[in-house]
Write a structure and sequence with these properties.
Two copies of one chain form a homodimer. By secondary structure, chain A is α/β, with parallel strands linked by helices. Chain A is 28% helix and 24% strand.
């Protein structure tokens, strides 16, 4: 309570919370907000240093609130506030809550950016969903009396008492690494004036994890997606969620095997080799966080929290847990719940008191990446029957709504990544990514990555000069197969057949034994074509994905989904209509089918910013029902039926109507 | 509840606790003990594997207990118990509590070794005080159903559920390193039979810190005393307290300075050098634990807990905390409370899930070593006014009783360790450790370390052949000075004076300028003698010690102490009568003055075995009043008065009486 010579009390209403109370005249707005539990931010604890507690006094008569509020019911701006305004600036109408005293009844608006639990609003598909920040790590500035011969309390006891007094932080644990930095921080802080001054980072209100000299008002976190092929991270400000840097690099585990199964085979064949794979991926994460901090221009010591998503094998390997058993029936995880691990136990060169929070895993083949996808796409918050598929060498599939979620994993293989395809390649400049085949002439046109022009448009040759046309990537092969089918060159069973087609001397048809290949492009260096085996590979992959989905729909007792999200790098690039045209996904209103971008990574970012989101996804993952495709009796049946394009028995009326409307009707 | 066809209930009384209850016939003794909270040990959880739950059924009529007990009120020994008896043996009259069913009213004796909280009885001065073991780490054997396609629970979830069911351990935290070993432990345990079988070490009932395949019934701890000069440790079984190995080595920090102050000077002059000193001492501790495990013949992974004592500088350096501020007024500690630190944060090669518990520090110069001394000598548990002095280059002094403790540190310097003494040396073979001077002839006789003979006894020359007589150690110089004083050669002020003595041509008196030296021994190689400066050095050291004590007595308002303990390596070797004769300690009944051995290390062993003792010493240390000798106005005054032998103004009537009785009266 500040000193004041005014007596009496005033009625105060905080908006938008509507919390109200009576306070002695002279109470500061910050004090009143704390007393009422109003969400008003502060890092400096009321010393006019951080400027986080800005409020707007409201004028006029508020009949609904039964209050009359006038501007002059707040004390005039004093020299401390004026100094802040001069140095850091203060918008018109804004006041510092810690410096403004209540002198009469009033309504006080707390702007969004003055709230600790501020909203982050979704801006694009790749952006995180609307989210209320619920900080895992908070900053607390304190000023302490220095020790003297009369007051020889230990540094720790001293600062613990001050944090309890100023911030109500009782019973704080102190990490030893944070403690080792306490004394230098306090004594470096002496430069700031006659008292010890320091800022302490507190995690979950329970543990002091980092300390800095003087005043500090921002710390950072990194959300990491550990993929089998690449590791990628976003560095964010923990108070606003702003992304300051994004980067990715290869997962160096690739030297132990290209894909997941080959790495598990390596582990099985080389007993005791798990630490090697752990070291490799932890070293990559260490490099990644260093690169990210460099890009963001911050000290890695300012990074105090990470979140990590990844498939179960990556999840376990990053943690130093041997995942060999994940490759053997019954595929049990070692750890499934969301877990906080000290960064120094992972060898990450950020603030050593910090933690990495691993999102929960769901089952042996449905990992923390899927948990991230769920958190990002939030099927558990909607009433609509939602299907989310993260397509990679495995498809992780989640189906359901707010009352029930069900999940499985299905082994699609690497075809969608361009492997096992004759002219296949990874998505990179020069790769064909879009394909159209004229229903009459049977001639193709296409687009390659790196150019916006179709191959039959003027300037295409110039546009691709240099890179050339080098192969077909995953999205390209899906469109090629779909168009071959729609054009009548590939029948519903997936056979390439020329019956009834004029293909004699056709430049795009090339005989190969008793079969033929369809040539998309020829130049001096190479021909890019689709072979019968390529169609078969795509059929197998899409069938694995579809039959997993169909199994879940069957278990859920639904024949129809309301909404579909395709997640993952591959899922972001494919045209959802073509995905449906080959029967990778079930029939659905195409307006309700969307790419979700790197939803797993987005989920990691959400978890980075919100303790509530962590609790939410941990709870949801424990409730997700797992379906094990490997032992589901009907899976094989679904698989065989799903080999057809788009499917042997499931109707696709919405797809057909869309093809009709788009003029893409089948020949 | 075991199957039985008997109905009805029986009254059971457990002794020595006297706990009683009624149980359905057929209840096992172990079950009944758990229901009543009786202290009956088990590691295997009732599977007749560990044999910890042995009990003795009592016969006869127990009027006081209102019960009639007969042997046959316990079920006969069945095949499981017989198998145990055959393999591991079972004393006559003993039964396994987990296998014996209650069939009627009975009295059951729980022998000492079947109690978890068993007593450890003091056997010698260096032994720990009578102590009830209160284990910090407990072992829990579990058998789990293996995962199947129908039960795919994660390994962690599986074992957590079993530990909750079998052992009532709810909400256990799991260290990540323990978790990383869980899956291999469970699967190695497959060799033991059809289920997963493992033993989990749980710390404080809250965290799983280690796991082993199959059944395991013992883990170990190490109590470490980190001295400025040496580091020493005892490896103990955590269930019995038995010491399996003891070892010590030099503190390699010696290369940064011989004593504490020179190391703090090094730190002050070399900013940022604290990590160097930390690495040095942590490396020594790592070596020490490896040596101890080797000596005890155990796997270092079986060591799951350590306790550490040391002066404040060592305490901080082992923790990685820069102690520079401890050398500067106002000497504030960074950390004072007792603290658990994960061993891997200290680089100790024991089980990585284990912890080291650092005993609390009391003040900037009164550290965890003094806390250990208090725990060992327990002045806080007695009504007698107790003085405990840990004599080293600093004397840490504690005075008081159960209602009040008061402590200080006083800089004695290295004279007691033989440094700053002309012929001084460390305590080692060849060093003079005992001295007597004939009051008439003024001739000395002495004993050297390594021989039990006095120098004037037959065979002495042969006994010391090889080592020879090389110098005087700390206890030797104290006796020499005391005897010189008692023989009238050194006056009360400490001056060597020949007035009234027949020293002309005396072989033991050697002129040196205007003074003389007193020669204890001469041979071909050297003369061992006491110089006037040596007496002065001892006066300064003992005066520092005495004046600190006197200051505490003054603050306590007492002129008399009831009991004195001298702790530390030096304190163990000096003859307490001579310590009093020079005025190192105040007057006291000599029967009540004793050496306490390495009391700091003993305190560390007590803390290793008992969680209750940890809570006790943490509480006591927070209540100890600290007296800062450096700013106490009366300290200088006490210091000057204490330069006299034994003291300028304090009377020593009990000492005088004792000297008289022993025939050691002063000349």
């Amino acid at each position: 309570m500040s000193n004041t010579d005014i007596t009496g009390t005033a009625k105060v209403v905080f908006m938008p919370s509507g919390r109200r109370g009576d306070f002695p005249l002279g109470t500061t707005v910050l004090e009143a907000s704390r007393a009422l539990g109003v969400d008003l931010d502060t890092v400096c604890g009321g010393r006019a240093v951080c400027g986080r507690c800005q409020i707007v006094p409201s004028h006029g008569e508020f009949a609904k609130l039964q209050i009359v509020s006038e501007h002059n019911h707040l004390s005039e701006s004093g020299p401390t506030e004026e100094k802040y305004k001069r140095i850091k600036g203060l918008k018109d109408g804004r006041r510092l809550g810690c410096q403004s005293q209540i002198l009469g009844d009033m309504v006080i608006d707390v702007p969004e950016e003055s709230q600790i639990h501020r909203q982050v609003v979704r801006k694009s598909a790749d952006e995180i969903r609307d989210l209320e920040i619920d900080p895992v790590v908070t900053l607390h500035y304190v000023e302490l009396p220095k020790p003297s011969m009369e007051d020889q309390r230990a540094d720790l006891e001293r600062i613990v008492a001050q944090l309890a007094q100023d911030w109500g932080l009782d019973g704080l644990a102190w990490d030893i690494q944070c403690l080792a930095r306490l004394s230098p921080a306090l004594r470096a802080g002496e430069a700031y004036g006659g008292e010890f001054k320091a800022t302490v980072a507190v995690r979950g209100g329970r543990e002091a994890i980092a300390v800095w000299p003087g005043f500090k008002d921002r710390v950072y976190g990194i959300a990491v997606d550990v993929g089998t092929t690449t590791v990628a991270g976003h560095l964010c400000a923990l108070d606003t969620g702003e992304v300051l840097a994004s980067s990715g690099m290869m997962n160096p585990q690739i030297r132990f095997g290209e894909d997941l199964m080959s790495r598990i085979s390596y582990l099985q064949q080389n007993e005791g080799s798990a630490p090697e794979l752990t070291s490799a991926v932890q070293a990559a994460l260490a490099d990644l966080v260093t690169v990210l901090a460099g890009e963001a221009g911050i000290d890695p010591q300012e990074v105090v929290e990470l979140t990590i998503v990844g498939n179960p094998t990556m999840h376990h390997l990053v943690l130093g847990i041997d995942p060999t058993q994940l490759g053997m029936e019954p595929f049990p995880l070692v750890l499934d719940q969301g877990s906080s691990i000290r960064v120094r136990d992972l060898g990450l060169p950020v603030n050593p008191g910090g933690y990495a929070w691993f999102l929960p895993c769901i089952a042996g083949h449905v990992g923390a990446d899927t948990a991230g996808v769920i958190l990002s796409q939030a099927p558990h918050l909607t009433g609509e029957m939602t299907l989310v598929i993260d397509v990679g060498t495995n498809a992780e599939i989640v189906l359901g709504h707010k009352d029930r979620l069900i999940a499985c994993s299905s082994p699609t293989g690497p075809a969608f990544e361009g492997a096992q395809i004759t002219c296949g390649q990874r998505a990179a400049p020069g790769a064909i990514e879009r394909v159209r085949i004229d229903r009459e002439t049977l001639k193709p046109r296409f687009k390659v990555i790196g150019s916006d022009l179709w191959s039959d448009e003027p300037g295409f040759a110039e546009a691709i000069e240099g890179a050339g046309v080098t192969g077909i990537c995953g999205s390209g092969i899906i469109e090629a197969v779909a168009e071959l089918h729609l054009a009548g060159i590939v029948d519903a069973s997936g056979r390439m057949q020329a019956k009834g087609l004029e293909i004699a001397d056709h430049p795009n048809f090339r005989a190969k034994g008793r079969n033929f290949e369809y040539v998309l492009h020829t130049d001096d260096e190479r021909a890019i074509y689709v072979a019968p085996g390529d169609v078969r590979a795509i059929q197998l992959a899409k069938s694995a994905c579809y039959s997993g989905t169909r199994l879940l729909m069957d278990r859920m007792g639904t024949a129809q989904v309301d909404r579909i999200y395709l997640a993952g790098a591959f899922g972001s690039y494919i045209d959802v209509a073509y995905a449906m045209a080959i029967g990778l996904i079930p029939d659905c209103d195409l307006a309700q089918v969307a790419s979700a971008g790197n939803a797993a990574g987005t989920g990691a970012r959400i978890a980075l910013l919100s303790a509530k989101a962590r609790a939410e996804i941990d709870r949801v993952c424990r409730q997700v029902e797992k379906v094990e495709t490997a032992i589901a009796e009907d899976f094989q049946e679904y698989f065989v039926a799903a080999m057809s394009l788009p499917h042997a028995s499931d109707p696709f009326p919405q797809l057909e109507a869309w093809l009709e409307a788009e003029g893409l009707a089948r020949r």
